[in-house]
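Support reply, case 0932

Customer input (verbatim):
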Amino acid sequence: MMKDNFRTWPAYVLAIALLLISCDEDTGSLGVYPRQDGINTSTASFDVISSSIANNNVSANSTTCYLGKVIDPETDKAITATFAAQFHTFEDYTFPEEKHIIKSNGHLCESVEIRLFIKSTFGDKNNPMKVEVLPLSMNNDKLIKESERLYTDTDLMQRFVDEGQQPIATKVFTATDYILSDAQRASEGYSDNVRIVLPQEVGDNIMKAYYSDPAFFRDSYSFIRNVCAGYLFRTISGVGTMLSLEVCTMNINFSYKTDENPDTKIPALCRFAATPEVIQSTQFESSDLSGLIESMNSSASEATMLKTPAGICTELILPIDEIFRGHENDSISRASITLMRINNQDEDAKDDDYALGIPQNLLLVRKQNVKSFFDNQQLSDSQQSFTTTFISAYNSYSFDNISQLIAYCQNEKTAGMKASGMTEEAWEAAHPDWNHVVLVPISVSTNTDSNGNSSQVSINQDLGLCSTKLVRGTAAKPLKIHIIYSRFARE
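Our regenerated output:
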């Protein structure tokens, strides 16, 4: 630890300094200091130990779905993505009166299709892949409920598809749709997508359900339980492509006429979308990463790892006892830690199509809170959880001020010992993770108001194909957390 270095400064100078360095904290305690008061400050650095841990229990509810199969270049094992999607209907949706529908060879609808709009592609865009589509069950014991907590290892086929159910459609596709011309793909408004044609009867049944009882279309809850529970999309052949899907839509094409113009055919489209209002869930099947984690934690390793979608996180042990020892009457104005990234040796030589991305956003959260944080769809509170972004210019991630976390953990231990009557040693043995935090790659959705202020809307675990290594903190070569203390002193 660096030697404490206290200095006494004029109150007005340090009041300004503390205001600047405490900008990340609750400002409720800031005020005007009496002129006769002084503020003492000191700095110190403490050792932080880090390691790699498995991150298997990953919440799968997300605004993005994944489909495909690729070989992980770090493990040479396959990663397969299957996803399930429900569909949202606008409240009190209406079709034209049934008598006005112009039938197509006896069918109410002319065609029905699903389009999977591609956000990004990992791997070869020209690689043929085959997907099958299966209806999700409408039986109450297999229906995906709104309260359902789904994870990336949830067996979607077994849990939510009726036994013996056969696919209603299959599709061989490439991420680049060569059925369209270059000009069509380059046209304004075009987005890469996979088009899957469903049997006409699917559209017929949806329209018949409306005419039997329009209340089925009152809202998504009624629609999912009475009309269409959604679909499972499963890769059945092909290796080398993984799609990140931005949105999934089901389109029903039909035509109708009006009493005013009975001889005029009016084409129409009814669109249902898989949106955040309903459940979208991706299942990943991948190899066991225990061997990789073991190698990362070996005595010879100088790195920890961050790996997604369901893979590896980095754990930090914060030296909270050491931070407070001798500073029981001080306030922690700032606690900062920087994690340096290690470049892959062959990073520049990698095929861009198969280069694993660098996680762009990280969550620092107490280890004991990881599961509940994502299960309860929480946002970072700058007390027990913090977010940061990758700084490419410095090749690092930095948490500028986690002082409230340090204080929270220490206060929790003090209160816990008092309430239980335990000794410090006994309490820490009963709560072994009390000072452990985990770094989790995340995706963050934000909203910007009319004044340009941005706020978090949702935080999900990153389900993209990302991987990077961080400098590891060991007993011999620890990471450092930097502390600034402050205290008031009468002159």
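We compared this against your earlier run and they match. Two observations from our side: The chain has ten helices and 23 strands. Residues 133 and 233 are 5 Å apart (CA to CA). Please reopen the case if you see a mismatch on your end.
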